[in-house]
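Request: Show me your protein:
***
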Amino acid sequence: MGGMQLVATGFAGASEGVRTYVGSFTNSAPTSAVAIESLPAGAARKAAAYAASASVTGSAMADAAPQLEALRERGLITGYRTYAATGMIAIDVPESQAAAGWDAINQVAHTGKFVRSREFTLAGAVDAVAGAALAAPTSAFAPPAVVPRVATRSVGAVRAEDVWRTNHTGAGVVVGILDTGVDGTHSFLASSYRGARAGGSPVQDYNWYDAFGLAARPVDDHSHGTHVTGIVVGRGTMLDQGASVPLTTGVAPGAKWIAARMMSSKMSATTEQTLAAVNWMLAPTDAQGRNADPTKAPDIVNSSWSFTDEDPRPYQLAFDAMRRAGIVSIVAAGNAGPGARTIGDLGSFPSNITVAATDGAGSAADFSSRGPGRQDLPGLGISKPDIAAPGVAVFSSTPGNALGTKSGTSMAAPVAAGIAALVLGKYPTLTPAQVRLVLERSGADLGPAGRDSTYGAGRIDAVRAMAAADALVGARSRSVASVA
C-alpha cells in the first residue's frame, strides 16, 4: 500500500497548485462502538477505540489503496494521507485535473462524501490587555502545594481553592490543548508540561504536535494557546512592586498538559490541519509522527475556537471519535453573541461540552454566542450551550514569561476544563457523559428557570461539581451493590 500514512507527519496539507479533499470511510464508526462506550474512561478504552478505528481504516484501505495508487499513476491525484484514529482520509488533486480528479476520488472504495480542505480564520479571544512581567520561579520543578496560594479572580469565582483544600488539584489528569500552540518555556507552565524532566531537556515525543511542521518543541507565536493553558494549569511567581508573589492562574494546577498547534499566528487553519491535530490527540505519536500510542492520549481536550462551515461532518465524526475514546471534549461556544442561534459548528456537536461566558457579576457576556446551536444536520438540534463559566478579563499566562488578561468564551472553556480535571483527579474512570452530567449539576441557574440558550445549565462551580461527582459515584456504587 505505497503512500499510505496512518498518522500524518509534519505539515498536514497539500502544496501550491493542489486541492485537498477530506472525507471519512463509510464505516468509520466501528461496529463495536456501543461496547467501547460502555467501558470506563481510561487507557483501556482509549486503546480499544483506536484499535477498532484503525481496523476499519486498514480494512477500507485494503481495497482503496490500489485504486488510489492507480489514480496517482494517471496523474489524477498527487498523494493521500489516512488518519486511523478518526477514520479520515485526505486526498490531493492537482488543479490541472480538478474536475476529473474530483470525479475519480468519489469512486474510491469505502469512502463517503468528500469536502474541500479550506483555510478558516477561527474565532478566539475578543480582546487582550498586557500584564506584568514575571519573576523567575524558585524551582521550575517544585511540586504544586496542596493548597496553592493567591488565586486569580476567575479561579476564585468557581471556588477551585476550596477543592484544593481537600487535596484535589487535578493531579494525575492530562489536558490536551488544541490551539495556537503553547509557550513551553513559560515559568507558569514549564513544570506542568507532561514532557518536562527535572534536570534535563523536555521530551517532545507524545506531548507536542505541530500541524505546520515548523516547531520541534512547544511554541506559540500568537498568545491565545498560552493564555488558555494557563487558565487550566498555570502556577508560578509574579513580581508585584518588586516583591515575588506566588500566583495560581490555573483551576487545576496539579494537572499536566500536552498540546497540538493547529492554528497559525493569524488564528487560521485548514480543515485537514485541524482534523490531523484532533487525530493526534486521540493517538499521540513520537516526534517523527510514528508509533502512535492511544494510551498516551489526554483525558480532556480543550478547544477554544469556533468555526462555521457549509458541511462540518468530518469534524463531527472526529469529535464523536474523541467521545468514543472516553476523552472529555470541552469547547468554546463562540464570540458571535448576543444574538440567538450564533453558536457555530463545533459548539453544536452533541459530543462536545459547550461553554458560554459570564462576566464578573455572573451575567452573560455580550459577546458570548447564544444557542440553541446549528439544527440543520443529522445528529444536531440539541440544546446548546451546555454550561457557562467566567470568561471576561481572565488573568493568565502570555508568551515571553508575561501575564495578561483576555476575554472570550475561549477563556471560559478552560475554566470548565480545569473543573473537569479536578473531578477526574478524584474519579478518573468517569465517562464523558458522566462528566457532562456532573458539570451541568454544578451549574447555578442564572437565566430563565431551567436550561436555556444563554447559560445552558448555568454557571459551573468546582465545589458543587465535586459534590455532584461524589453523589453520582455513590449512587452507582449503591446500584452495583444492590445488583450483587
